[in-house]
Amino acid sequence: MTAQLANDLVSRRGLLLVLSSPSGAGKTTLTRLLRDKEPTLALSISVTTRPRRPSEVDGVHYRFIAVDEFIALRDRGDLLEWAEVHGNFYGSPRREIDQALAGGQDILFDIDYQGAMQVREKAAADVVSVFILPPSIPELKHRLERRAEDSPEVIARRLAAAKVEIDRWRDYDYVLVNDDLNRTFPRLQAILVAERLKRERQTGLPDFVHGLLKDL
Ligand code: ADP
Ligand code: 5GP
Fold first, then answer.
1. pTM over 0.85
2. Fewest C-beta in 10 Å: which of 46, 123, 170, 186?
3. Which residues sit in the known binding site for ATP?
4. Can you name the CATH fold of 11-202?
5. Cβ neighbours of 124 (radius 10 Å)
């Protein structure tokens, strides 16, 4: 699990960047921005039994599958983690993740707190977790309504779930209040940059330093 980026002299382990938030706080938006700016970051594409939203593309945003297919994947052990969220099943396929890590890539997960805890249990040293909070509840409601892709019943259900979700903020390494994207996004990038530079992730350091010392 090592990566040598074009501008880096030292190779390093990939990391698993986990983003969670109550629905509507902005993690899909932040995920999209991050992927535009960080082309080496692979996105873990989840499977879900939820109906596709009009703006979503199968295989890009999610792989939309039937409940029996989900249960078969889960029971075969093909999911790294899975959870029932807002009445639908969601899971992160293991195969794509293993392939990406083997290629030395960082991987981004947009998953709920139940999934975040499972990934952390399985790969504690590689996980960097970030929780996104909305600036206020009226703004959260406003964002869910403005997105205009869910029915009023679905929006009400998601708002009701926000209480339990927001309460999980202590389980994460970092917490961002997403008031203004122009502030939140650079902060998220800064987390990624700093975490990539953690000494223990820079697995090529012993060889690099050895080379430096040899030439002294
Ligand atoms: P989530 O993935 O957490 O459910 P989204 O990223 O889909 O949330 O964001 C919900 C809505 O709020 C979208 O319409 C998005 O454009 C908007 N949004 C996200 N972040 C902000 C922000 N900082 N300020 C204003 N609107 C935002
Ligand atoms: P949405 O339906 O709005 O796309 O996502 C609803 C919730 O499910 C969000 O909190 C999202 O992070 C979470 N989610 C999406 N994919 C997965 C997954 O593979 N596993 C888990 N545990 N949660 C997921």
1. yes
2. 170
3. 21-28
4. Rossmann fold (3.40.50)
5. 9
